[in-house]
Design brief:
The chain has 102 residues and is an all-alpha fold. It has 5 helices and no strands. It has 2 domains: 43 residues; 58 residues. The protein is globular.
């Protein structure tokens, strides 16, 4: 959620780290979607069905963001700093995998 809020709250510093963007609205929209995903995961009810849904959302979001990073960094479309994001997504995928075993 913090990462999603970053381009909304302080776009200039976000672009300093991740590179300038042509479409500010797109960065803010992506950030809002990150935040919405985080809120949905945090507010998951403690029931088996809700937890299964949260796991699907968490895995799907992490995998989607990871794929984007791994495609567009090597293509030179986004900065290598996005590989830090890719590492975080791998961490989330590992955490979801570990939680499914519990």
């Amino acid at each position: 959620m913090v990462g999603g809020a970053w381009p909304i709250v302080w776009l200039r510093s976000f672009e300093w780290v991740f590179g300038p963007k042509e479409e500010d609205w797109l960065q803010k929209t992506s950030g809002a979607l990150f935040m919405a995903t985080g809120v949905a995961l945090i507010l998951t009810e403690d029931s088996p069905a809700s937890i299964r849904s949260a796991r699907r959302l968490g895995i799907g979001a992490a995998a989607a963001y990871l794929v984007i990073d791994l495609i567009y960094v090597p293509a030179g479309r986004i900065r290598k700093t996005y590989l830090l994001d890719a590492l975080m997504e791998i961490g989330w995928l590992a955490a979801w995998r570990r939680s499914s075993r519990a």
